[in-house]
Design a protein that fits this description.
Layout lengths: L13 E6 L4 E3 L4 E2 L10 E5 L37 E10 L6 E7 L4 E6 L5 E6 L17 E7 L5 E10 L10 E11 L5 E2 L10 E8 L3 E8 L5 E10 L2 E8 L6 E9 L2 E9 L2
Parallel strand pairs: 5-11
Antiparallel strand pairs: 1-2, 1-4, 2-3, 5-8, 6-7, 6-9, 9-10, 10-11, 12-13, 13-16, 14-15, 14-17, 17-18
Length: about 280
């Protein structure tokens, strides 16, 4: 394989190899997101026994790029690269079409610490650790847990990922460590509770209210008149985390001002709507 050509003399002993920007090759999983190796660049090679690397003669090949090169910068998220990282390989990603999508890693404080492009249903990414030579914490600390999400570049929406571990210790940062996961795309990721303003408003017959939940919870959305009397019950059930729309049909309701109230265990919000006939 051309991706492994420079290491062909020792490839049977290579566990993983990576470059200064966190791209890596992993022969055991037949994965590489690295550009062709170049003289003068530094590389790190993890081997399973003492070996001697003899560089082969240069291989003539067409110029290549890694997935995501030359994309519009506005379509990508770039973590702050430090001088240390660990390697994450999502060996399979299930549950959603993956066009124009990538995987991102966030610390517990929602700081971006890794980003990788999905290619042929597989994604490799570097997760960056803290540079101890600076006072500012700019990456993950040793032993710090992190999470991964899927981002749809075309919409900007983020989705939760559940995972199972094939190799390694999972989503806990360790410098120069590596882990392999199978992942499944779940619900839309939202960071907080929210009931958005109704649209249209004022409205003639039907209006839409959008709301979001960061976790699964019991939620109620009811409509009240100016005296506080319950006019209509729109939602009263347990919902999974995500974004939702609910419609209120006021066709049989008299014109006037009404209040829509969304309530959960941790959230209480009221929106005013005006019905005009």
């Amino acid at each position: 394989d051309n991706d492994y050509y420079v290491l062909s003399s020792i490839i049977n002993n290579v566990v993983i190899a990576k470059d200064g920007v966190g791209d890596f090759l992993w022969p055991r999983y037949n994965f590489s997101n690295m550009v062709p190796w170049r003289p003068g660049q530094g590389y790190q090679i993890n081997v399973n026994e003492d070996v001697v690397l003899n560089y082969p003669e240069p291989l003539e090949r067409e110029a290549s790029i890694t997935p995501g090169d030359n994309l519009d910068d506005n379509l990508r998220l770039y973590p702050h690269r430090t001088n240390v990282n660990m390697s994450i390989l999502l060996y399979s990603i299930n549950g959603r079409m993956l066009d124009n999508c990538r995987i991102v890693a966030f610390s517990g404080k929602d700081r971006l610490v890794g980003s990788g492009i999905i290619n042929n249903g597989v994604c490799g990414l570097a997760v960056w650790g803290d540079d101890i030579s600076t006072e500012e914490v700019d990456g993950l600390l040793e032993g710090e847990a992190f999470e991964i999400r899927l981002i749809d570049d075309s919409s900007g929406e983020q989705y939760r990922l559940s995972h199972s571990i094939l190799e390694g210790d999972g989503l806990t940062y360790k410098t120069d460590d590596f882990t392999v996961l199978n992942a499944t795309v779940g619900s839309l990721y939202v960071s907080d509770y929210q009931l958005l303003a109704a649209y249209p408003n004022p409205f003639n017959a039907v209006t839409r209210l959008s709301y979001q939940l960061p976790t699964a919870t019991q939620v109620s959305i009811n409509v009240y008149d100016l005296s506080g009397r319950l006019v209509d019950e729109l939602v009263n059930c347990e919902k999974q985390a995500g974004k939702y729309d609910v419609f209120w049909n006021g066709e049989n309701i008299v014109s006037g001002i009404y209040f829509v109230r969304m309530k959960t265990e941790h959230y209480n919000e009221i929106r005013k709507v005006t019905l005009i006939k």
